[in-house]
Design a protein that fits this description.
This protein is an all-beta fold. 0% of the residues lie in helices and 56% in strands.
Length: 116
């Protein structure tokens, strides 16, 4: 069994910053990739950023230059540093863990609200 737990969401003013963390625990032999997705009310879930085991990263165009994804392989933890936040970044942010030899796992989500 694998557990995925996100933390770090909250309320922030436009232009502010937040750092999300996601830790995977349980029976995990290796992880191919970890990523962050978000879902705003009435919209589909979308990829925000992802990082594969070799360190290659991928970002949605809407967050390039503002968000940075990083990973601590030893801790099976992925981070999302979010700077210059905008109201349109408001969403529930979900962490996805892609193990090398089993199904994907999702966290429960953490709310990010950008508002003055």
């Amino acid at each position: 069994q694998v557990q995925v737990v996100e933390s770090g969401g909250g309320l922030v003013q436009p232009g502010g910053s937040l750092r999300l963390s996601c830790a995977a625990s349980g029976v995990i032999f290796s992880i191919s990739a970890m990523g962050w997705y978000r879902q705003a009310p009435g919209k589909q879930r979308e990829l925000v950023a992802a990082i594969i085991s070799g360190g290659t990263t991928n970002y949605a165009d809407s967050v390039k230059g503002r968000f940075t994804i990083s990973r601590d392989n030893a801790k099976n933890t992925v981070y999302l540093q979010m700077n210059s936040l905008k109201p349109e970044d408001t969403a529930v942010y979900y962490c996805k863990v892609v193990p090398t030899h089993s199904r994907d796992y999702w966290g429960q989500g953490t709310q990010v609200t950008v508002s003055s």
